[in-house]
Amino acid sequence: MKMARTTILVLALALATASLMRPCNGALEAGFYRGKCGIADIEQVVRGVVVARFVRDPTITAALLRLQFHDCFVNGCDASILLDGEKSEKTAPPNLSVRGYDIIDAAKSAVEAICPGVVSCADIIVMATRDAVSLSGRKWYLVQTGRKDGLVSLPSDVNLPGPTISVSQSIAAFAQKGLSVTDMVYLLGGHTVGVAHCSFFQDRLYNFQKTGKPDPTMDPALVRTLRSRCPEKSKVDNTVNLDQNQLSALTVDNSYYKQLQAHRGILQIDQELALDRLTNATVSKIAKSLDFSTKFGEAMVKLGALQSGSPGEIRKSCRAVNPPRSK
Description:
The chain is mostly helical. The longest helix is centred in the middle third of the chain and has 17 residues, at 121-137. It has helices at 2-17, 42-56, 60-72, 101-114, 121-137, 167-175, 181-188, 203-206, 220-229, 255-261, 268-273, 280-288, 292-304, and strands at 29-30, 36-39, 144-145, 195-197, 239-241. It starts with a helix and ends in a 23-residue tail after the last helix. Helix 1 (2-17) packs parallel to helix 6 (167-175), helix 2 packs antiparallel against helix 4 and helix 10 (255-261) packs across helix 12. It has 13 helices and 5 strands. It has 2 domains: 19-159, Peroxidase, domain 1; 167-301, Peroxidase, domain 2 (Orthogonal Bundle), CATH 1.10.420.10. One of its GO terms (cellular component) is extracellular region. Belongs to the peroxidase family. Ascorbate peroxidase subfamily. Its cofactor is Ca(2+); heme b. The record marks 66 as: Transition state stabilizer.
């Protein structure tokens, strides 16, 4: 009861401060760019870029999901992660393996060619991610647009939940952004696609919590399989699918949750979702549901609504703030 009361208190405090994360430049809305670029359909222009890439590389869905999460979770969805620089968010350890920047650049070039100075890079991230998710899961969801691009990008601002974080710590981290426990469980469902490097979970295979044994919550058959892919003293940091159902490893669906129930979660935080009393009922419900794509889309829209309220602009290049205007 004490833990439950603490969690409720954290959520209440987060909701009280959530207003600080709302946009100061007008409310976001679906179809924000309609009519702002003549007859051009900006969302279809972005989608065309994503489709062309997805056909060649369907793993781009996982990359864009991660890109949006890493952007929105740090000072709101302002494309600050796209800025280049020796001391930018890109240089923070959690972002060193983030990819997908080239797709955003391509989409930005495409929209600038027909509608210069109107479409933000922050909106392109959200639109492109939605497009990739719909291509992977065959479920379209409306996204809100109207964001401005941020002016600041610092590695010190990057404080993302790690793979060994506890469920209660993860709940608190998401609550600080105004996201509920259910939102968190759905958003972590982004792990239904993508891979993890062995270094992020190797302790679970060999020396869990310094016991000299594997994590007892992991399926022994999975331990054996992963050990062959992730030798204990290997100098190569291989990757494995986060969804161990090989038939759906590239599909945005609820297979991830079914794998967690079978004790086949790869990352510690993923497996804990199915074991912790604060989240196991939600995992069970999603695993049995037929509406995962719809609910996941709703959670992504909530994530996309995070805004810091700081001043912004429409960047000419997603990789740099605009030069000062001459007086």
